[in-house]
Amino acid sequence: MINSPILAEACTDRLAALFVRFPVRARTFHSGALCGITDFAAPEDRGQIHLIRNGGVQVLHPGRPGLQIDVPSLLLYPRSASRRFVTDTERGADMACAELDFEGGATNPVAAALPDVICLPLQRIDGADGVLKLLFEEAFGTNCGRHALVDRLFEVVLIQVLRHLMETKQVNGGMLAGMSHPKLRKALVGMHEQPERDWSLDALASVAGMSRSVFAGAFRRAVGCTPGAYLQAWRVRLTQRALLQGRSLQTIAVDVGYGSEAALSRAFSSACGLSPRAWRRAQSAD
User: CB under 8 Å to 135, separation ≥6 — which residues?
Assistant: First the structure.
């Protein structure tokens, strides 16, 4: 029996806090055949997702190896990236494509945790058969409301991809690698859910069910930084989101676990090179 409410919560949903605090919205922009040469470039601070239903596609990336796709597949670009699709000029390839608006842009922890490009055969994404079947039916159909429905289905597919990456441990290093670990993920979810808590190394190790030294070493190896550095980075990300929402520093300081505006400003400036107010002014100017 689990007595700690934090540990119990940490065991339930690794992605809940991430999507509540940093939502992702999809917007379909293409469904149909692509023939010949097609160039893509996602708008700044947005990603794109392509679902290839049938047809061969050669994908060319500037300055990096290309891809040859011959089976129904998913291509995910969490950040803006240029690419060229080359398909048969007559038969083409049927695909559905959507832009991904990661709230917070470059500060969105989901986008930041993913590699530059992910290519997965559709049959390897566990549990996605029904969703993909419905998405293709709606994307290539004429039903009313299909655009809104397909947008939501793309968001579901993204969640299923994240599940797949965590369950199969395909991400080396960073947050998703930690979320793949059966014990470390409990501490990560605890920080995500309760950033305002005074998290000590002992407390995090206890949530993970590990000794202090074993936890600290395993966290650094998996995530690539110390638990304290991760917690500070998470709090800074939350602060940036709250600043863009126009909230006061005093309120933000309490919500993210700093005792005062001054303490928050010091941590924020150390991480970002600007004070919170200067950072907000710079974002407003952009």
Answer: 51, 96, 150, 153, 154, 157
CA neighbor of 18 nearest in space, from 102, 99, 82: 102
Pinpoint the residues of the chain covered by CATH 2.60.120.10: 16-167
Q: What would the pLDDT profile of 152-209 be if each residue is shown by its tens digit?
A: 999 999 999 999 998 888 788 899 999 999 999 999 999 999 999 999 999 999 999 9
**Structure-token pair, residue 251:** 């309120």
If DSSP states are collapsed to H, E and C, what string results for 251-272?
HHHHHCCCCCHHHHHHHHHHHH
Cα gap 269→193, rounded to integer Å: 24
CB distance 254 to 196 below 8 Å: yes
Q: Which two tokens stand for residue 4?
A: 């700690």
Distances (CA, A) of 52 to 3, 23, 46, 161, 221: 47, 25, 20, 15, 36
Tell me the average pLDDT of the chain: 90
Nearest to 209 by CA among 10, 44, 63, 16: 10
Q: Supply the pLDDT for residue 170.
A: 79
CATH of 16-167, one of 3.10.350.10, 1.10.101.10, 2.60.120.10, 3.40.50.10330: 2.60.120.10
Strands, sheet with 47-54, edge to edge from the N-terminal-most edge strand? 24-34, 93-102, 47-54, 73-77, 118-121
Summarize the confidence of residues 211-236 as an average pLDDT.
96
Give the distance, in angstroms, between the CA of residue 51 and the centroid of all CA atoms in the same chain.
Answer: 18
Distance separating alpha carbons of residues 252 and 214, to the nearest angstrom: 33
**pLDDT at residue 2 above 70?**
no
